[in-house]
Design a protein that fits this description.
The complex is a heterodimer of chains A (112) and B (112).
Chain A (H helix, E strand, L loop, with lengths): L4 E3 L2 E4 L5 E6 L6 E8 L3 E9 L2 E5 L6 E5 L5 E5 L8 E8 L7 E2 L3 E5 L1
Parallel strand pairs in A: 2-11
Antiparallel strand pairs in A: 1-3, 3-8, 4-5, 4-9, 5-6, 7-8, 9-10, 9-11
Chain B lengths: L2 E3 L4 E5 L4 E3 L2 E3 L5 E7 L5 E7 L5 E3 L5 E5 L4 E6 L8 E8 L5 E3 L3 E6 L1
Parallel strand pairs in B: 2-12
Antiparallel strand pairs in B: 1-4, 3-9, 5-6, 5-10, 7-8, 8-9, 10-11, 10-12
Classes of the chains: A mainly beta (112), B mainly beta (112).
């Protein structure tokens, strides 16, 4: 157990819908990262937040957004969902900006 | 653009065989290097990391990796694999602007 929690574990929704994925970092970690893992794209870095502020941006679509709240938990919002958005979404956390990342168990999103 | 290459997509070994998984990255600046493992049905776990200092780093479960700056490589090794090492292994690089790049992964299948 890495100490990073993600909810829900599974999510099934329809195209065009909007979902929110939640992540709670390890105690004491200020950075939160979001990743998408799919069979064709592999593991892709989406975005990083540090202490509430965006610090790094990867291959995140405009339909996706994220935020980190004052209690340091983070949410990833996915809107106008498409079939291709079906994937495993991981959250990770680290103490600082360039530290070792500890991964959560992931949320499996299925878009039908 | 920065990238990480893992040339072996699928490796099959017998128990007690030696393992070496290749990882090359393209970036000339300062990098932090990682190897993560993902056991079937589980989340990513850190095997080892290199930030600075001795280029030969030792990780958990008998794994080690050597950073060769001139070759832009960070290969993972284990002298004698076990059936329990069956998993997918990911090399990762943290480069510019704290962006994290993962390789496409290598699936290791160890036959008992």
């Amino acid at each position: 157990d890495s100490g990073v929690t993600q909810t829900p574990k599974h999510l099934i929704t329809a195209t065009g819908q909007r979902v929110t994925l939640r992540c709670s970092p390890r105690s004491g970690d200020l950075s939160v990262y979001w990743y998408q893992q799919s069979l064709d794209q592999g593991l892709q870095f989406l975005i990083q937040y540090y202490n509430g502020e965006e610090r790094a941006k990867g291959n995140i679509l405009e339909r996706f957004s994220a935020q980190q709240f004052p209690d340091l938990h983070s949410e990833l919002n996915l809107s106008s969902l498409e079939l291709g958005d079906s994937a495993l979404y991981f959250c990770a956390s680290s103490e600082g900006v360039r530290d070792t990342q500890y991964f959560g168990p992931g949320t499996r999103l299925t878009v039908l | 653009a920065q990238s990480v290459s893992q040339h072996n997509h699928h490796v099959i070994l017998s128990e007690a065989a030696s393992l070496e998984l290749g990882c090359n990255y393209s970036y000339g600046g300062t990098v932090n290097l990682f190897w993560y493992v993902q056991y079937p049905g589980q989340h990513l776990q850190l095997l080892l990391k290199y930030f600075s200092g001795d280029p030969l780093v030792k990780g958990i479960k008998g794994f080690e990796a050597e950073f060769i700056k001139s070759k832009f490589s960070f290969n993972l090794r284990k002298p004698s694999v076990q059936w329990s090492d069956t998993a997918e292994y990911f090399c990762a690089v943290m480069g510019d602007f704290n962006k994290f790049y993962f390789g496409s992964g290598t699936k290791l299948n160890v036959k008992p």
